[in-house]
Amino acid sequence: MESLTYLDAVAVPIAAINCDTDQILPARFLQKPRSDDFGKFLFSALRFGHDGAEQPDFVLNKAPYRESRIVVANHNFGCGSSREHAVWALYDYGIRAAIAPSFGDIFFINCLKNGLLPIVLPEAVVLPLLDTLSASPGSRIAIDLPAQTATLPDGSAHAFEMEPFAKACLLRGMDEIDYTLSHQDGIDAYERSHAQPY
Q1: What tens digit of pLDDT does each residue of 152-178 get?
Q2: What integer pLDDT is reported at residue 174 of this predicted model?
Q3: DSSP per residue over 6-58, as a string?
Q4: Residue 95: is it exposed, middle or buried by C-beta count within 10 angstroms (0-12/13-18/19+)?
């Protein structure tokens, strides 16, 4: 898992409300091993036709959105089933942050567990941003995780909330297991000091 501190990148607009995990990653790919590149399956039913050819009208098939590392989405992004694989698909494609007015609850948690930063901003900010990104392909967003701000193409900076432990893990590029193991010496010392004398 890569650490995330600052990210200045092209953002792709996904304007559909209630874009669910089955759209992000269709169920037929759930049997693939994690070692596979899930990025090639991202939005598969929308990106590709039945013959496997790219659908030219889908946003990720257009330059410069192909190079996007940030998704800007509408309400309830990642709703539906709890498949962690949907986050793997975004991450493997290169997406490191998602901005939306709201997320599916389990999807939000899965993002944090897999090194992808979910940012909640008000609808009054996100909806005009979706229009801007559609009208001006290649527009960039700058995210400063230590300061918890996102600077939009118009130069406006918006603060976002972040749970401290999740923030620490993202900054270090760790999941909960990695974080626990990083304190192994302290854990061992505690166990030794509290061991029964008999």
Answers
A1: 999 999 999 999 999 999 999 987 767
A2: 86
A3: EEEEEEEEE--TT-BHHHHS-GGGTTS-TTS-GGGGTTHHHHB-TTS-B-TTS
A4: buried
Task: Enter the pTM of the model.
Answer: 0.90
Which residue segments constitute the domains of the chain, with CATH numbers given?
Answer: 6-173 (3.20.19.10)
Query: Residue type at 195?
Result: A
Q: What average pLDDT score do residues 78-100 get?
A: 96
Please state, in angstroms and rounded to a whole number, the distance separating the CA atoms of residues 52 and 135: 28
Beta bridge partners of 142: 8, 151
Point out which residues pair with 143 in neighbouring strands.
Answer: 7, 150
Which candidate, 43, 45, 76, places its Cα nearest to that of 60? Answer: 43
